[in-house]
Amino acid sequence: MLDPTRPIHVALASDYGETYAGQVAFLVLTNLLVRMTPAVTVSGPATSLRVGPRRGSGDVIDEAVAEMATIDPYSNVRAVDAVPADALVFSFGRGPASNVVYGAGWNAHFGSGSPSFADAEDGNPFGAALAAVLAGAHAFAREGHDASGSQSFNAYDWTATEHAARFVPAQMESLQAWLIGCGSVGSAIAYFLTFAGWRPQWTLVDGDVVKTHNLDRSPTFRDTDCGSNKAEALRNYLTRSGVRSVTAHPAYLHQIALLEQRQNGIPDLLFAAANEYDIRYRIESALPPLQLYATTGKQWQVSLIRHIPTLDACSCCLFPPVAPARPDTCATDSAVNDSGEQIDAALPFLSFAAGLMTAAEAHKLSSGREPTSPNRVTLNTFEGQFRFVHSRIPLRDGCVCADRTTEVHRAMLAGSRFAHLSDDRVEQ
Ligand SMILES: [Zn+2]
Q1: Residue 317 and which of 68, 204, 225, 271 are 20 to 30 A apart at CA?
Q2: Lowest-pLDDT range, 14-18, 203-207, 326-330, 342-346?
Q3: CA 313 to centroid of ligand 1, rounded, Å
């Protein structure tokens, strides 16, 4: 997708490379770049790995090179001592440099110069991962060109201001997270949550198989996954990453009675990263728990979507059923709403951004915090110009959610981790 004759070099500064955030940023961007070009080189001092199941026994440079070679065995990735001639260089550290990639806490910086926000050594992966994804979007949009300025954002309330909120480690005891759709966006959600220490009881649902083009868009699929069921391939990734409780259903949601036969209060959280087979109507008809996901659009935008039961507009307000919903009908085309948004991300940095935004939002809410933004936040990345836009999804007249009874819905949510969000409260 990028000019394979133009090398991209990723340089990790020693002090940043010793931090958890620095290693996350480095591993995310190298993972993303090798899905866009085979010509990636890396450099940095030998630094003990602090991320993933090999932490404490590996080296972060070796880890990045090994991971890239596994993702694309036909690539030419390697560690080098000197920056290759003509390479576009991304510098991980506080800079100054032409393309500084730096994140700490919830904050992210990409571009020339140095970040103004403070360091944070708190195990928060989200600011760092956001900086890496912005760098990847820049590599695609402004191929071969250095950044013309710098931009900083935070992954807490999705604004351009610094945010100093404390990072609270995830409380995973008995948390049940269902992921419906394990393609590019769904697998990216699980990927970023794993960096944040998420070890929930995962239930993965997808009837599709990994195809070659999925390797360009998902941060978890590798060459050897081709032909495997997506839910099973993602389970294998999570298992390799040290996540123990993962149940994979190699089927579409309508082929199993998961939703219909569930107990009250289960699951705590539903990531709805699929569109086919009238899936949103099925979910909304079954009195769902908190739903989070992100859509991607043709104008290179990513929208983080949140549906708090009994409070927010539902997913069918956003994606009206395309035909009268009938059980067991044939597949409809991927659902697309009025703004052309859909789940299936065509560009690799879009699915990474979609997964990152969804994961950050889930983590924030899991630590007992109230939402800090409206139920839709859109990241525009067109031509490498980054901007977050906040907007509220309106209720749609005649939607399935209008027929639901709040008391019945709350009874279905009782005991779930996020039920308190649906309590009566003042609208934001
Ligand atoms: Zn609705």
Answers
A1: 204
A2: 326-330
A3: 5
pTM over 0.85: yes
Q: What is the CA radius of gyration of the chain?
A: 21
Q: How far is 112 from 148, CA to CA, in rounded Å?
A: 7
CA gap 258, 237 in Å, rounded: 23
- Using a 10 angstrom Cβ sphere, with 0-12 exposed, 13-18 middle and 19 or more buried, the burial of residue 5 is exposed
What order of strands is seen across the sheet that includes strand 290-296? 246-249, 201-205, 176-180, 269-272, 290-296, 301-307, 376-380, 387-391
Contact predicate 308/216, CB 8 Å: no
Ligand 1 centroid vs 395 CA: distance in angstroms? 6
Helix (H) or strand (E) holding 100: strand 97-104
In this prediction, residue 53 has a pLDDT band, given cuts at 50, 70 and 90, of confident
Q: Map out the domains of the chain as residue ranges.
A: 8-154, 176-422
Tens digit of pLDDT for each residue in 128-141?
A: 999 999 999 999 99
* Assigned fold of 176-422: Rossmann fold (3.40.50)
Dist. CA 97 → ligand 1 center (Å): 48
CA 244-106-365 angle, to 5 degrees, is 55
Q: Which two structure tokens, joined as six digits, stand for 323?
A: 């035909």
Rounded to 10°, the helix 126-141/20-33 angle is 30
Amino acid at 382: F
- In the prediction, which pLDDT does 368 show? 85
Give me ligand 1 centre to Cα 424, in Å.
18
